[in-house]
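Contributing new records

If you add data, match the layout below exactly. Sequence lines come first and carry their own label; structure lines follow with theirs. Keep one chain per record. Anything else will be rejected by the validation script.
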Amino acid sequence: DNIMADQRLKDLGLHLPPPPEPKGVYVPSVTMSELGLLIVSGHGPLAKDTKTGKYEYIVGKVGVEMSKEEGREAAKATALAMLSTLISTLGSLSRIKRMVKSLCMVNSTTNFTEHIFVANGFADTMEAVLGSAIGIGSRSAVGVGSLPMNIPFEVEAMFHIEATPVLDESSLLFAQGVPRVINTMANMTSLSGSLMRPEVFGAMQEISRKFVDINKLYETAGDRIAQVCRAPEGYTAHVVCGAASGLAYSVAASIAGINPKYIRSLPDTSRIKRKVVLLDVDGDGRWDQSMLLTGCTLRRCKLSEFKREGKKPDVACMLIFDGYNENAPPVKEIAQVARSCGVPLIVDAASRLPPVSNLWAIAHDGADCVIFSAGKAIRGPQTGGIMIGKRDFIKAARMNGSPNEATVCRPMKTSKETVVGVVAAVECFVAEQLSLERIGGYQEHHTKPVVDAIIRVMHGKTPNGVRVSTCDIGPNSDVQPRHHTHVLVDLPTKLEKLSKQAKAIIKEHSSKHTNANKDLYGESLDHGSPLSVVPSNIPRLLAYKLAKGSPAIAVNTTATGILLNPYTMSVDDGILVANRILEALEEVLPSKHASKL
């Protein structure tokens, strides 16, 4: 049993480099899950350059440019590089059942004979991390005249891994009528949130093999999340089943606190004096039910009136939706008002990531509790949410929910798999975002190539009157994430330019759409069912055709066209979407002439 390998890696204080990129025409590893076999390509030693902070290959021939001790250290560094690839490939070292075979090659002089000594640097490290029963396998150690880039040591290896059962087609979702969707909208619950990270799968699989004290797990996970998210002193975190449940937990904590009588009475608040949640009248009203189920009373007013209203004896807390009201003062100012009124400030920042700094900035600005989704940009379980708050506040929230039985939030149960999956996702997200910020950001390394691919495919091929451009959307848009360039396809607004079939479709549906001025997430683009498009105007007709194709493509509409969010797409997705848009445009706006982009 190797479930402790990931923990041993941390306990040993070993720092892994990023998984090395191939230097030629090959892949880092080949996985044959059905056979339980993983073959890892040759790896060399990496070390961080103290000046640039980048990992570079260690070079030198053992016996001439390097001593045998230095060669052994290079072999240890090679083991760390291979462990990085193993985690990237498998999600967790716990999936390894045995190292079967390794081939160790030492770049050395012809009279060098200490190959075994050097190779043991690799073997000792693998044994220390994986354990003796799993980390020691059969081995060959040979001397070679040279190695690529003049690295001193290279190793390839074969591992026995936990086999993945082969599902027959009838057991797979797509064979049961649930087709793949290309998501060009955002990380949305209705489009299954995000694509979970491999590390998340590994963590969830590992914890699934054992029973734990769930209360202890909540506390330990909360402290770890608070640490990774740089929470202020005196703060911790709690994993809940989605950001909406975080609203219920935080309101229950504000109303009932840690009073056992109040906790057991919710949602009956007839005997509780402080039960009003003070909300911004210009805030987001879609989540009222998530709060009302606690038995609270919602009271809306302008933010400028919070200080007056907050001093009323029936107010239990103030709650704002970060970024929703473009005229709102900074969180720090609202937090000061809440403190002066003696009530907690709760900030729903469910999808306000990136930037990663929001994970700590809002709490440092004075919010008593900040709520995030773990199933969107963080790429954790879609059933996960995070509350980061003052320790006493989080304690009260936990007392009002599962596993405690007579509580209003008991139905919002969070499994041990979700808890550890969220922790793994947060660790990866923070590390990834901070790393990307140092080398140009996510836009440069992911979204820009997608945007470039879309523009390249559509260039010079759109009908007259159609304009394709890049744009930045406003800071308060509900499209998330939004801190990067999007692609806007502007369409003509005059119906006479349409094909006869297109005109007929719009005429049929225009009376069904009563709010034609809505753009993003308009009435015809139901946030809860974004593929159910009412084709009541030209942009929505294009969205309708894309949604009905195979694979279905979900797009945002604007008042004049459609908006493509590259964050949720790959380059291949972008190319497919661009070609499908051109096909749909030819049906809607037939023209022999192409316009310039």
